[in-house]
Amino acid sequence: MEAADTYFPSIHADKAGELIKLTCFISEDLKGITKTISGLDDQAVRYIVGASRYGENSALSGIGVIVSVNNPHFSGRSYGLALALADKILRYGKAQNNGRIIATGLVEPDGCGRVDGIQSLNNKLRLIVDHVRSGDSIWFPQVNLDTNDKEQQQLLRDIRAAGANLHAISHVNQGEGLLWPETTKVNEEPARQPKVAKRQWLLATGLLLVLLVASLLLLKPQMQHLWKAPVASEPMEIEPGVRQQQVSRQTENQETPVPLS
């Protein structure tokens, strides 16, 4: 596949907003490198692509890509999910010939492909309602899904009524089998954040120390009883006859001093 397109909703301060088209191209010259054009930030794009490829065990994980948008006049990082999905489809192919892919969500550099929430999802859903077509698939963060938000639920119903599919996801790889074939060979080990893992290790260590101290305090009375010095036994009474015999033997065993001349 030479190119892959996705779209993301962009809300402008003084305008109704628009769906911005994002395109990824394969570059034979850029081995494992991501290059951007049309005003995107190279480092930000590189971080997003790197995070979305986390855990891939395939030769295709090292392919270089070029990323462009048809309108660079936007702010924010909610295009991250659209970029991550386009990168996957570009390298592994499209699973089916469906409609447009419209996505919004954050893909943080240290999230290992996790899809984080965005601000004002309802505003973006309103924009999607105005531009959605039958056959489109809409992807957004699962953390933003609020079943108690009546406005949001109505917007989602309107999108379904237009013939589009909705996908609330928590990880980029949930698009596998739906957007690209199940051939990415992603490692089974779940993504972990170093900070969270370290915090859990410290918590477990602290709990172990508390249990150890509590055990020592409970065993202290028993240990004191074991360490207590033995009580001296009562002196044995000796009968007068026996005492006299002992004294006689002691006298016999004593050496007689030699007189000095």
Mean pLDDT: 80
Count of individual beta strands? 7
Give the radius of gyration. 39 Å
Relative strand content: 15-25%
Number of helices: 6
Oligomeric state, counting identical vs distinct chains: single chain
- Shape category: globular
**Estimated helix fraction:** 25-40%
Low-confidence stretches: 188-195, 231-236, 253-261
Question: What's the helix-strand series?
Answer: EEEHEHEHEHEHH
Structural class: alpha/beta
Outline the biggest β-sheet.
Answer: 4 strands, mixed
Order of strands across the biggest sheet? 1-2-4-3
User: N- to C-terminal separation?
Assistant: 129 Å
Structural commentary:
The protein is α/β, with parallel strands linked by helices and 261 residues long. 36% of the residues lie in helices and 15% in strands. The chain is built from 6 helices and 7 strands, in the order E-E-E-H-E-H-E-H-E-H-E-H-H. Helix 1 (42-52) crosses helix 2 (80-92) and helix 3 (121-131) packs parallel to helix 4.
